[in-house]
Every structure is written in structure tokens, then in C-alpha cells.
């Protein structure tokens, strides 16, 4: 466990104060982009984005679970399931420095596709 701190120290040393600030700011901006774009597409954004986490629901729990399953099978982005205030949710965690605005757009498109498949399973055959 003690050796893990060496990686952290090296990263902080390499990035410096401004680099760490830029990293944190970028992660937050991509999470906000996720929340805004998914909200614009009619998904329920359940949390205030304060750092890099976004919680999404798709109406009833069963629909949220179907959308999550489809989203994971589409393999454009990876999101996990969780529960929040007694509801099933899709948890988005923006945690890579390499995530671009274009990456978020692709992921949002995947969410829309996953929801369409959950609503109309016959689309999967097309």
C-alpha cells in the first residue's frame, strides 16, 4: 500500500498545481456536459453535479435497468447501476483526463439509442 503514494506523488509533481486544477476542472466540465445533454434528451438528472458524478433515471426502475443493460451491450461507454433515494439509477463517473466533449456526445447518443431499444425492442433486429 505504501508504494501507491509514489504514483500519486509522481503525478502531482508532474502536473503541478495548475495541472491538477485543469484536470479537476475538465472532469467537472465533462460531467456537467453529460448532465445537460442527457437532460436535453429527456433523461432525468437526479443530482446536482458538484464534481464528476451524474445520476440518471429513465422513469420507472424497470426502464432504467433496461436502458442500462442496453447501454452496456452497445459498448460505447461504460456506466454502472446503483440506487439513490430508493430508485434505480445509472451512474456516470467521468474519471479519465482523456474524455473529450466529442466523447460525451458519442455517449449521449448511445444513451438515446439504448433508451430507444428499451422502448422498442424490435429495433434491435433492424
Structure description:
This protein is of the alpha+beta class. The protein has helices at 4-40, 61-74, 101-119; strands spanning 44-45, 53-57, 80-84, 87-93. Strand 3 (80-84) and strand 4 form a beta hairpin. The longest helix has 37 residues, at 4-40. It is elongated, with a radius of gyration of 17 Å. The relative contact order is 0.15.
Overall pLDDT confidence: 94
The sequence of SSEs as H and E is HEEHEEH
Helix percent reads 55-70%
Oligomer: single chain
The main sheet comes to: 4 strands, antiparallel
- Provide the structure class: alpha+beta
Total helical elements = 3
Summarize the structure.
With 126 residues, the protein is of the alpha+beta class. It has 3 helices and 4 strands.
What structural keywords apply?
alpha+beta, 126 residues
Topology:
Blueprint: H1 4-40, E1 44-45, E2 53-57, H2 61-74, E3 80-84, E4 87-93, H3 101-119
Antiparallel strand pairs: 1-2, 2-4, 3-4
Amino acid at each position: 500500500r505504501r508504494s501507491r503514494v509514489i504514483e500519486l506523488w509522481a503525478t502531482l509533481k508532474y502536473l503541478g498545481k495548475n495541472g491538477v486544477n485543469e484536470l479537476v476542472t475538465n472532469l467537472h466540465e465533462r460531467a456537467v456536459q453529460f448532465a445537460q445533454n442527457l437532460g436535453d434528451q429527456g433523461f432525468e438528472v437526479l443530482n446536482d453535479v458538484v464534481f464528476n458524478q451524474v445520476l440518471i433515471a429513465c422513469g420507472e426502475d424497470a426502464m432504467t435497468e433496461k436502458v442500462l443493460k442496453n447501454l452496456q451491450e452497445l459498448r460505447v461507454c461504460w456506466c454502472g447501476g446503483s440506487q439513490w433515494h430508493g430508485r434505480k439509477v445509472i451512474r456516470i463517473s467521468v474519471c479519465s483526463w482523456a474524455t473529450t466533449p466529442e466523447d460525451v456526445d458519442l455517449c449521449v447518443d448511445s444513451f438515446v439509442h439504448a433508451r430507444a431499444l428499451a422502448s422498442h425492442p424490435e429495433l434491435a433486429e433492424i
